[in-house]
What we know:
Strand order of the largest sheet: 1-3-2
Strand content: 5-15%
Number of helices: 7
Structural class: mainly alpha
Helix content: 40-55%
Radius of gyration: 17 Å
Distance between the termini: 46 Å
Amino acid sequence: MARLSDMIEEFIKAMLDEDELNSIEIQRNELAGHFKCVPSQINYVISTRFSPEKGYIVESRRGGGGCIKICRVRVENSAEAYLMHAASSIGDEITQHHAGIFINNFVGNGVLSRREGAIAEAVTSDKALSVVHQSERDAVRADMLRRIILSLLSE
C-alpha cells in the first residue's frame, strides 16, 4: 500500500502534468479534505518533494484556506532558465546532501553528464572540503556550486 505522502505527491504531479504551463494553484485545506488528512501533511509533502532543488517553485499565500501555487521548471523549455533558477535557489549555504540533490537533478535533466555530475559531487563533498573549517563548509560549497552553474551558463 502506498504511503499517504506518496499519494499526495503523485496527485499534485498529475495535476501539473495536465496543466500546459506546469503551474497549479491548490487550496491546502481542500487537498487535506480530499486525502482525509491534516493540512500540515500537505505542507510536509510540498516542502519535502516540491523544493527548488527538485525543480519546483512554490509560493504560498496565507488566509482563505492557504492557497499554494506550484510551478515546475522544465529544462526542455530553457536550460538557461533552469540553471538561473537553480543558482538563485542555492542561498548562502548548502549542505552536501542538498548539493547532491541539485547535481543529481542536473544529471537527470541532461544539464550534466554522469561523469560531470560525479566530479561536481566529489569537489563539493565534505571530504574535499576537509581543509575548510566545519562552520564554513556549507558557505564554500554554495559558492562552488554556484560557480559550477555559472560556468555552465557561460558555455
